[in-house]
Write a structure and sequence with these properties.
heterodimer, A: alpha+beta, 2 domains, 4-stranded mixed beta sheet, about 10% strand, B: about 625 residues, alpha/beta, Glutaredoxin, Rossmann fold, Ubiquitin-like (UB roll), 5 domains, 5-stranded mixed beta sheet, about 40% helix, globular
Chain lengths: ~150, ~625
């Protein structure tokens, strides 16, 4: 815990204490800890001198911020228009079924977390799934198992 | 000679040397789309092969050249030959091509799609003479796929930053005049004249002023801005500097989606390189103009594409639009007079400064001058990023450039969630801000999604409304609650529970949402419903009255079945079915239990793509029980 606290302080040190930096701070915190924890919000609140309520208000407005830790690998399913008309929604359902979690959740063994995104911008290769930094085009329900087996 | 001209000349010489030398070059499309198609694996293969064979060849990673359906694209240029382009390359193909072309000098003609030479080349078309590219006019995308976006000298070798130098030699008012004369309109979708926007901001007396590049490309199905930023970041940055000089700003912010990590990385590299040669900071190119830039990542909110919401977000608040006036041009970011321009608008600006407004006006039609980039996707044969003069008919884009729909054409969706679905009868419509609006859609930022007979327009309307409903900031009741109710009605129709009265309710709600919402998001949210009801009412009626989805998409109205005559009894489907709905002994037609089937497509996919399966699983209208 103590280590985390100093880490948090080191992050905050990088920013001038202005509300305009709230979103970059939240982004940096999430990048380091994989999610926004209540302790993190408390620290930011003290630092920027704005209420925790306001921070939660801003953080929950944007789809990027999460309030539970991530898994070792992050699966993002694109639900953009091109992916939608090429069955991206059915792909997401199949992943939910395969991993036995809902979108926005993490598997109990922390191996995968699953999320949907409005568009990854690879529409010509729809439907698209992203795992960590890698994008996989022309995905299909039957390719799921083989693909996920590559990730430990 | 100016310092910049010297740099440009040096870069040109380097570029020439790079191309004249006997060292072979391999160009690999490494934009997000190329990566998604597998170019990372190809790159590994190439590097391993070069090392193993001790070949001296240069691997140049380039951006997207446009035809995404051909990705990964790998081009090879050797001493005597022009650059030859190979499409849909995988590691095995890459190895074969390199061994033949690079090692033995034999062009693998049957795998090549075109050449980039200045003279005809044995049986291969010129790359830009391919059907998809021939009728395009590439201005903004000129450098994409040609230069290394992480090397500022490549940009300089193509007259980079000479537009800025020209601008700095003029007075800011003259720069604005030139942009106004060119007729350039905002490429983000609304089409406000760019010169006028700059003028309003310039005239505001209080300082400091600031410029924002809106790279929050949020429309699902659109990736023009991503491709431009990944393929030619300096063009956009040069445009920002020119805009900054014209309005009298000394700072600029690029507001970019966090979902575009590669574009962000390339912008960061570009900014660093600009600083190194004095294109950012104090007294740029020896002028009195000083300017600094920073990147702010968006946090995922569609509404932040709206100017006032974007500003709220940059101020660290919830991205909720506010009333206008005051317009951002008079009171924007932290109260400063602010100009917000789209990526493509800014990417066009340097070209206008370089070649003049008269040159720009030769493209396009009266009132809609210049070119526009579109992402041509969906059920069309040739997908990708395209650039055409405004005024080009939709039909030409879909059939000549896109090669037509995969099956029979149903609709084309323009303008993202705020746009509309246009039917076949309207395909002769020339693409301009006004004609699209008259048809009930909008230009938007440039998404063009083709839909064929297998796309259900009711499902598409539900999809867009659902998207908007989730992205509504919640400020206006009509948008927050109205879109929610519209989604519920559309869901009811898709599930077979709709009544004919629902269509009236839907229309009336749509009118209310349109007329009583504050910002563009709410005002345009009903467009997908308006246009589909206007042009495809018959499909709604089929869903409501006959409980029939003509496209066989709405899952409550369809069922999967096995065609006994085609079924080879290979049991592939049995093994992939997650619910055990398919059974049957090997080599005999299988049986599909509808009570267990969850319509997940697994059996359909495996039956279609597996070599020994017989493509025996199909979808039909659900039989009334």
């Amino acid at each position: 815990m103590g280590k985390k606290q100093t880490h948090m302080e080191n992050i905050l040190k990088e920013f001038p204490a202005e509300q305009g930096n709230l979103i970059p701070i939240l982004q940096k915190v999430q990048e380091e800890f994989s999610y926004i924890s209540p302790q993190g919000v408390e620290k930011i609140s003290e630092f920027l001198k704005i209420t925790e309520n306001e921070i939660y208000g801003v953080a929950s407005f944007y789809s990027q911020f999460r309030f539970i830790p991530k898994g070792r690998h992050t699966i993002t399913v694109c639900l953009g228009t091109a992916c939608h008309v090429r069955n991206g929604g059915i792909l997401l359902e199949a992943l939910e079924r395969y991993l036995e979690i809902r979108s926005g959740e993490c598997t109990p063994d922390r191996r995968f977390d699953l999320d949907a995104v409005a568009c990854l911008g690879c529409c010509a290769l729809a439907p698209v799934v992203k795992i960590d930094g890698d994008i996989f085009g022309n995905m299909a329900v039957i390719k799921i198992k083989e693909l996920l087996d590559k990730y430990e | 000679m100016s310092k910049l001209q010297k740099l440009i000349n040096q870069s040109k010489t380097e570029w020439q040397v790079l191309h004249d030398r006997t060292i072979p070059r391999i160009y690999l499309g490494m934009a997000s789309c190329g990566r998604a198609a597998g170019s990372e694996e190809v790159k590994k293969t190439i590097l391993a092969l070069l090392k193993k064979q001790k070949l001296s060849a240069r691997l140049i990673e380039v951006g997207c050249i446009g035809p995404c359906y051909l990705e990964p694209l790998m081009d090879i240029a050797t001493g005597g030959n022009p650059r030859i382009s190979y499409a849909n390359v995988n590691p095995a193909k890459a190895k074969m091509i390199i061994e033949k072309h690079l090692l033995k000098g034999a062009v693998v003609a049957h795998m090549a799609v075109g050449h980039f030479g200045t003279v005809p080349f044995e049986g291969l078309p010129y790359f830009f003479d391919q059907p998809m590219l021939k009728s395009q006019v590439r201005i903004v995308l000129k450098n994409c796929g040609f230069i290394d976006p992480e090397n500022i000298r490549h940009y300089l070798a193509h007259e980079g930053y000479s537009g800025l130098e020209k601008a700095l030699a003029l007075s800011p008012d003259r720069v604005i005049e030139e942009i106004s004369k060119s007729g350039l309109r905002g490429r983000g979708g609304a089409g406000f004249p760019a010169g006028k926007k700059w003028q309003i901001c310039r005239k505001v007396s209080h300082d400091p002023k600031t410029i924002i590049c809106n790279a929050d490309e949020g429309d699902p199905g659109a990736f023009m801005n991503r491709s431009l930023l990944e393929g030619d970041p300096h063009a956009v940055l040069e445009g920002m500097l020119i805009a900054g000089y014209a309005i009298g700003a000394s700072t600029g912010t690029i507001y970019i989606r966090a979902e575009y990590p590669l574009a962000i990385k390339r912008l960061k590299i570009a900014i660093k390189q600009m600083k190194e040669i004095g294109l950012l900071g104090d007294r740029i190119l020896g002028s009195s103009f000083s300017f600094d830039l920073k990147i702010k990542e968006g946090a995922g909110a569609f509404v932040c594409g709206e100017e006032t919401a974007l500003i709220q977000s940059l101020e660290g608040k919830r991205g909720m639009p506010r009333t206008k006036p005051p317009f951002p041009a008079t009171a924007g970011l932290f109260g400063k007079p602010t100009v917000i321009n789209n990526v493509e608008t800014l990417g066009t600006v340097p070209h206008i400064l370089r070649h003049g407004s008269a040159w720009f006006k030769q493209f396009g039609v009266e009132g809609n001058f210049g070119t526009k980039t579109f992402s041509l996707v969906g059920k069309v044969r040739r997908t990708g990023l395209i650039e055409v003069p405004l005024g080009t008919p939709l039909k030409k884009i879909i059939y000549e450039i896109g090669g037509g729909p995969q099956k029979s054409f149903k609709a084309v969706q323009t303008g993202g969630p705020s746009g509309g679905c246009l039917p076949e009868e309207l395909l002769d419509t020339p693409i301009t801000y006004e004609t699209l609006a008259a048809a009930g859609s909008i230009m938007g930022s440039g998404g063009l999604i083709v839909m064929d007979q297998d796309t259900c327009v009711v499902d598409v309307a539900r999809y867009f409304l659902n998207f908007i409903q989730k992205e509504s900031c919640g400020k206006c009741t009509s948008c927050r609650v109205g879109t929610r109710h519209m989604v519920e009605i559309l869901e009811r129709i898709c599930n077979g529970g709709g009544e004919i009265a629902d269509l009236k309710k839907l229309e009336s709600l749509a009118k209310t949402v349109k007329s009583t919402s504050l910002c563009g998001l709410g005002q345009t949210a009903p467009n997908p419903v308006f246009t589909t009801l206007r042009y495809f009412r018959k499909e709604y009626v089929e869903h409501v009255v006959n409980k029939y989805c003509p496209a066989l998409v709405c899952r409550s109205l369809i069922e999967y079945y096995v065609i006994p005559d085609k079924c080879t009894g290979c049991q592939r489907c049995v093994s992939v079915c997650p619910t055990g709905a398919i059974s049957g002994p090997r080599s005999e037609p299988h049986n599909l239990d509808l009570a267990k089937c969850i319509k997940c497509r697994a059996c359909l996919e495996i039956c279609r793509f597996d070599a020994i399966a017989g493509n025996a699983i199909a979808i039909r209208t659900r039989e009334e029980k």
